[in-house]
Write the C-alpha cells for this entry.
Amino acid sequence: MARPIVGIIGNSYLINDEYPAHAGGSMNSHAVAQVSDALPMIIPADPEFVSVAELREACDGFVFTGGRPNVHPEEYGHEETEAHGTFDRARDQIALGLIRECVEVGQPILAICRGFQELNVAMGGTLHPEIRDLPGRMNHRMPPDGTLEEKFELRHDVTFTKGGPFHRLMGSEVVLTNTLHGQGIEEPGARIVIDGRADDGTAEAIYVKGALGFALGVQWHPEWNAAEDPVSRPLFKAFGEAARAWAAGERPAALKSA
C-alpha cells in the first residue's frame, strides 16, 4: 500500500543572502517518513505557486513547521512592533487558510512551534511577541551558542491535563521537552484548548475543540530525535495513523451524512 502523502509547510530562505529558496528542515522529513510512515513533501508556502484547494487535494495531512519568521500581528489585530521580529506574509496567506479548512473537514494537521502559533491565530487567538518579558516566565528561546544537540536539549517539563488528549496519547501527565521559541499564546482562539503548560504557565500543547479530525499543536520541536524520543514518537505515530485513514477515504461521520 502506498504511503499517505504529508505536506510539510516550508519556509522562504535566501541562500548565501542572495538565492531565494523554499526549504524545510530534514528532521521534519525524517519524523514524517520514519515515525509517521508517510511520504514527506515540502510545500512552497506561497500563493504565487500553490492554493489551499490544490494542497488539500494533493496531500493526506499537513505538518506546520517551525520557522524563524513570525505570524504577522495584523493577522490577529495587533500593531507591528520591533519585538515581533521578521515575517513571511506569503506563508501567512497559505497556512492560516489551510488550517481552517483542514479543521472544518477533519483533514489531519500537526502544528509545531510557529505552526502551533498559526493554529491559535487561525482559530482567532492572539500571540505575545516575547514571552520572556512577561513576569514569572522563563526564557524559552533557543540557546544562542552550542551544538545542534545542545540547542535541542530537553530543557523543561510540560504538564498535561489529566485525562486529556495529550495525557492519553503520551501515557503520562508530565513529559520533558526542548524549547526554542520566543513568542507564545496570549489569548487562545475560541476553539483552542490549552492541554499542556510549562511550569511557568506558558501554553505548550493545544487542540481544537470539536475538530472532526487530528488537530494538535505543540510549542516545542518533537521532530528532533523523533524516532527515539518517547514524547515525539507517539505524536508522529498517531498523526501518521490519521493521515493513513484520510488516504484510505475514511471521513468523519459528520461529513459522510452531510
Summary: The longest helix spans residues 89-105. The chain has one domain: 5-256.
